[in-house]
Every structure is written in structure tokens, then in C-alpha cells.
Fold:
Amino acid sequence: MIPHSRPSFNRPDQRAVKEVLRSGIVSAGPRVARAECRLAARTVTSAAAAVCSGTKALELAIRAMGLGAGDEIVVPSFCDASVLHAVTAAGAACVPADIEPETYHLDPGSVARFRTRRTRAVILTHSFGLPDDPAPFRRMGLKVIEDGAAALGARLGGNPVGSLGDVSIFSFCETNLIACGEGGMAVSRQRKLIDLVKELRRDIQWTDLQAALFSSQLKRLGSTLDARERIAQYYDLRLAAVGVDGPVRSIGRAYWRYVVRASGSAENLIPRFHAKGIVADRPISSPLHRALGFGNGFDVAEDAWRHCISLPLYPSLSRAERRHVADVAAALLSSGRL
Structure:
């Protein structure tokens, strides 16, 4: 069975971890501080704070911005439930808005419809690796928080994801572009915000083992993104030949997920992929507006939930695996039959 996600570790990663074990310092030591500096440099921000998870990093970033009880934060309905958990853990109200049909980005028009006098910020999730533009939301007078879990290394107009918002977070669980087993970081050009995150995190930061694995993978992030893009381009060519559109192409995007919109039902098609030895999956667990009890106004998110499928995409996919995924996807997505 070809898994939907698979972390990629190499010998330098193993050596980095072994060096930590030989040092005898496996808790939070000097490697954590160096990892923070490296991510800040990579994202062209002033500082970074390592936290136990991306969800916790987002919660603490929200709190560091002074947002909480009585405040509303608007998020795209078609995103991971961890965003909802972070907002509510910070004490703020999570308000979902609809998405744009091609990019799955937060729709500014929908935000305008759902905002109230208590709306303070939006969270941009850079859906599946495609950077979202903060400009429309800044014009609304809203603060911008980036959840860059899907888009580390991506750029918008030459500016790296992580530098686009007031504060930004990244996640490093085993399915992400860098996999440390678990862990997250917050970054910002405002050093005071990161100082506040560090005060709030207390003892929920990293170990040197995580930091070593992170730093080793960060060194090769460029080649990791290139490898993912080559696989995505191969899928693009194979699917275009049968009239199926792949994800939006954009200079500077990261291919964390390869999400396609099927003409048929995702619920019906995914088991057919599984029957052919491929773990295709839904891109998210469920739209947030459903979890929060919102009714109308989410037509695009509902359509994406019904039809979107995420295909395996990661550097360790063999040529034979890529070919098999493309063969099955071309047959199923073009006709629904195989």
C-alpha cells in the first residue's frame, strides 16, 4: 500500500541525532536556540520560539498578540481542525468563512460578510502550500496571522511565508515538510511578540534531539521542495492528458499536498484508490463551519469537501509508485471507472 504521507530521513539526519546522544544533552540545550535562529533567518524574521506543537505555537501566538475573550478571529472553513483548537484554547471566538474555488484560500468577500465589530484578525493557512496574500485583509484593518504548516519555504512576490503576517507559525509533525515527530515554532518581525511567546511557553519547548533533526532537514529544504515539485509536475502532465486539472501553479509555491477536484464524489472515489493500493485521502477532516454549527454561506467549502481528493506526494515516492498513482488517478478522475 502506498501511504498518503511518509517522512524522509537520510544519513545526515541520523548523524545529527547521534551527535546529540553522544553529547549527553538531550533536553532543551544549545541546539534549540540555534534552530530558532535558523528558522528566523530562513523566514527573514527577527526571532523564533520553539514550542511543543504547531497548534500550541498558534495558541501562544494569538495570546501574545493580546487576542482572547471577546475577540473574533476569522479562519477558512476548509482547513485543519487544529486551527479551531488553537483559537478556542486562546480564549477567542473562531469564525469560519468561505474559501476561493481555485486556491482554497480565505475569501475576502466572505470575511467581509462574517466580520463584526469584534473581529480582530484572520488566520491564513496557505492552503496545501500555495501562499495567500494578506493585503485584502490588511485593507480591512485586520491583523494577519499565518499558519505556515503547509508552506515552509514558499514565497509570495519574493517574500517568504512567515514574513507576511504580524506573527506566523510552523508545524513539524511527521506529515509536514520538515518532520521532527512533533514540534512547532512561532516567528515574527516583531521581536517583542516572540519574547511574549517564550514567556508563555514555560516548559513546553523542544529538546535538542528535535532541534538537531530540524536543523538537518532545514539545510536541504530547497531540494525537498524541488523533489515535491517534480512529482507534482509529473502528476500535472498525466492528469492534463485526460482533462483533469491539478492544483494551481504559482511561482514560489510549496507542494505539501497534491489536491485535485474530482467530478465524482470523494467519498465514493477514495475507497477505489485504496482498492488499488493507494492511500488517497480527503485534504481535511471536515469543514470547520460544520463543527461550529454555521449554516449558509459556505458553498465553495462544501463543494470542496464533496469533491477534493489528496494524492500521495513526498520525495521518497519511487518512480514506480508515482507511475501507479498517476495511472490510477488518471483512470478514476477522468471517468470514475477503473
